């Protein structure tokens, strides 16, 4: 990615990420710093295609762990100095975090809306009200479209940006700033996976609440109502965990952007 240096950073998942990355310091000049190694592990976890098949709540947990690891790295003076020596790159990171904050703020609203729609659907099931069932189905479709839109807003962030040669005099600066950029890209990629997974759940709910299926199953087969309400209850429990996870990631992203601003703003 960066010409003119002994070693360059590459996308997580490539062979080069398996090479040891070193954060130089006066006390341990040749050993990999634990904070840097831990962050790389979290990037791999978020980039792993196998982990993306898990639940949206688990995806949010991985994002939160990655952000915690990034916060640990940003507390190191060498990481802070590297960002100060590349203000243009740091501004790009700030912009990326702002977009992620906006996207996850919208996710919180969508998660809350899903909970409300499920409550309405359960009420319609109990009352055998096809009109309210159809309304709940339309609401789920709107949430599905919103989540698909959110995924598209962070799609470009999921691609790791190339570092411009010559911006940093120290190779250690290139390594640190590059890994921070990889962390932002991995966060965006994992966020996309979460958004699309929840959109799929909402799409499935909309299909199950459609008139063609629920009119027969609920209105004409009232004896199945309890089992259907139990299924809606399980979905509500899942969404409750989703609201908690989305709120936690939103706060972590917000705190991360504030931390970057504090690093780049001279103390008075």
From TrEMBL:
Biological process according to GO: root development; shoot system development
Pfam families for the chain: BPS1
UniProt superkingdom: Eukaryota
PANTHER family per UniProt: OS06G0725500 PROTEIN (PTHR33070:SF49)
Name this polypeptide is given: DUF3475 domain-containing protein
Taxonomic path: Eukaryota, Viridiplantae, Streptophyta, Embryophyta, Tracheophyta
